[in-house]
């Protein structure tokens, strides 16, 4: 079940932080980088975030989360992370389906590291189209995707 996470509560922020750490370490490996900005995010950063978080639990464990930001007629997927223990179980797909139905935004946008093949494949399967590439913080090459609902 996907539920909204009250990320301002310390226990929830700690769970999000732990999940993001283990998940983003995998992406850092895929990208071949050691200094990966998402890994620098602190618990307090989760607590103070202006975005919304939704989580999917398995056996009372936060197995995955999606972070979204509502912009004008656009819903931005800021982060979508799955604990490696739960890879290849369709969890990211469930979170994307949830986001697609979340509101009446016209467009969904997301970005990922250029070498994150699993994420790129997932987004393309969902009909996202690559819109651009750029070099982000730490010199990390990123791909941006967009989808009209």
Task: Characterize the structure shown.
The relative contact order is 0.16. A hairpin with a 2-residue loop joins strand 3 (61-71) and strand 4 (74-82). By secondary structure, this protein is α+β, with helices and mostly antiparallel strands. It has helices at residues 10-31, 43-47, 91-100, 117-125, and strands spanning 2-5, 52-58, 61-71, 74-82, 107-113, 129-135, 141-148. The protein is globular, with a radius of gyration of 15 Å. The mean pLDDT is 96. It is 31% helix and 36% strand. It has a seven-stranded mixed β-sheet, with helices on both faces.
Could you write a compact summary of the structure shown?
By secondary structure, the protein is of the alpha+beta class. It has four helices and seven strands.
Largest sheet: 7 strands, mixed
Order of helices and strands: EHHEEEHEHEE
Number of helices: 4
Shape: globular
Kindly report the spatial arrangement of strands forming the biggest sheet: 1-2-3-4-5-7-6
Strand content: 35-45%
If you average the pLDDT, what whole number results?
96
Gyration radius from CA atoms, angstroms: 15 Å
**Proportion in helices:** 25-40%
Distance between the termini: 23 Å
Estimated structural class: alpha+beta
Low-confidence stretches: none
The tally of strands reads 7
């Amino acid at each position: 079940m996907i539920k909204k996470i009250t990320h301002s509560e310390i226990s929830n922020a700690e769970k999000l932080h732990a999940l993001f750490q283990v998940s983003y370490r995998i992406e850092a490996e895929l990208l071949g980088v050691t200094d990966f900005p998402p890994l620098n995010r602190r618990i307090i950063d989760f607590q103070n975030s202006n975005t919304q978080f939704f989580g999917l639990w398995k056996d009372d464990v936060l197995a995955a989360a999606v972070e979204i930001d509502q912009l004008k007629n656009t819903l931005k997927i800021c982060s979508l992370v799955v604990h490696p223990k739960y890879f290849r179980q369709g969890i990211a797909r469930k979170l994307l389906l949830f986001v697609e139905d979340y509101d009446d935004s016209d467009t969904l946008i997301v970005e990922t590291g250029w070498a994150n093949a699993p994420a790129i494949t997932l987004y393309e399967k969902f009909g996202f189209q690559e819109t651009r590439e750029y070099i982000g913080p730490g010199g990390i090459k990123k791909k941006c995707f967009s989808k009209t609902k």
